[in-house]
Amino acid sequence: MVKLNTNENPYPPSPRILELCRNMDWGQLRLYPDPAAKVLTDALAAYHGLLPEQVFAGVGSDDVLAMAFLTFFHSSAPILFPDITYSFYPVWADLFQIPYERPRLAEDFSIVPSDYFGVNGGIIFPNPNAPTGCAMGLEQIREIMDHNRDVVVIVDEAYVDFGAVSALPLLKEYDNLLIVRTYSKSRSMAGMRIGYALGNPRLIGYLNDVKYSFNSYTLNLPSIYLGAEVLKDETYFQETLRKIVETREWVQRELRALGFIFRDSSTNFIFARHRSCPALKLFHALRKKHIYVRHFDQDRIREYLRITVGTREEMETLIDFLKQFLDAD
Questions:
Q1: Nearest to 220 by CA among 42, 30, 23, 22
Q2: What is the per-residue pLDDT across 21-47, written as a single tens digit (0 to 9) for each?
Q3: H or E stretch including 307?
Q4: Is 3 exposed, middle or buried (0-12, 13-18, 19+ CB in 10 A)?
Q5: CB 126 within 8 A of CB 156
Q6: Beta strand residue intervals within 14-139, DSSP E
Q7: Which of 26, 112, 179, 187 has the smallest number of Cβ neighbours within 10 A?
Q8: Residues 107, 79: Cα–Cα separation, whole Å
Q9: In this structure, are residues 157 and 61 in contact, taking their beta carbons and an 8 Å threshold?
């Protein structure tokens, strides 16, 4: 099986994980973990050059984002997020009864900053966006921030390590900016469920107030310690990113030669359509060969497939099959 449908990292996390597991005092598992996850938040603060009180940790970025929706989006004005974006944004908005509007992406799938200048109750968008893989520059994000000083703006940076520019420098300028990240993609730790938010201490304090009001013990003890440990191995982290990016660039060249159309990706996936072969036909043909990619039955993107970048060997299997299938079609 070649699994290219959930954007997991094809490489294992840092070897430091195994070493820490060997030496961890597992007797601690009888105790509740630290509610503040201080070992992890302190490590993340040091890694990003921030204060510990500027970091909030949760059970994957989904938990952090849901907490942010619950904490900050309670105006009668609608929150804004793109019409094509992460599928859980409308789920959380509906769950918490938050009104929302979805500005339409440009025809090239880019976010139009001016669409976010009107009255709203908050803004959220991924950078790079998912499932399109398109990234915004820092100046475009600054434009949105400048026109939204009185609401919380969340930048979801789940894929930022694969080639986009982080909004992290803007935290010094905007006290209403919240950046959310995850260990599930670039850090190869989807199974540990670690996510975190970076922002002004007041925003982080509000997130903690809401969390502590109903569930103090969110992150488990191994996640706290292992999440801190991997930050010490920057060499391994950068090498893994390099391999994924190099494979992504190779796959993009191969897909274009086969007649696929897409914008250059800034993520660990490629969002592409074929010039003549329907997406569902490709999707089912790939699945019969146990090659799994993602198809979205959604307006504007039904002819696209989202293809996770796996190992070079996995991607060669994909390309070899597509060559045979498209030649025979």
A1: 30
A2: 999 999 999 999 999 999 999 999 999
A3: strand 305-308
A4: middle
A5: yes
A6: 55-58, 79-80, 100-101, 123-126
A7: 26
A8: 22
A9: no
